[in-house]
Write a structure and sequence with these properties.
This protein is mainly alpha-helical. The chain folds into two domains: 42 residues, no CATH class; 45 residues, no CATH class. It is built from five helices and no strands. The radius of gyration is 15 Å and the shape is globular. The N and C termini lie far apart (35 Å).
Length: 88
Amino acid sequence: MTVRGKVHFLTAYIEFLLDEGIKSEEYYLADASRFLRFLLTRVEQGDVQAFVEKFSPSYQKRLRRTLRKFYTFARKELQITNKVLEEI
């Protein structure tokens, strides 16, 4: 896979799978999704704080807003609950 600027995680994973010659990425994406769901249910306050604090104050504000929206999606559509994520 060629290196590109600002390729998002899931897009890069799909491109990797296709470059590897995978005929159907369905199982691979499903398993990666299950793993990410597992991690989301177990993230702790310190993890979220450390992630957000890596960025500039202006980006932190945007990041908190977009992460809240992501958590709303995870809660409503995927039934993922985690009190830490509610406090972003």
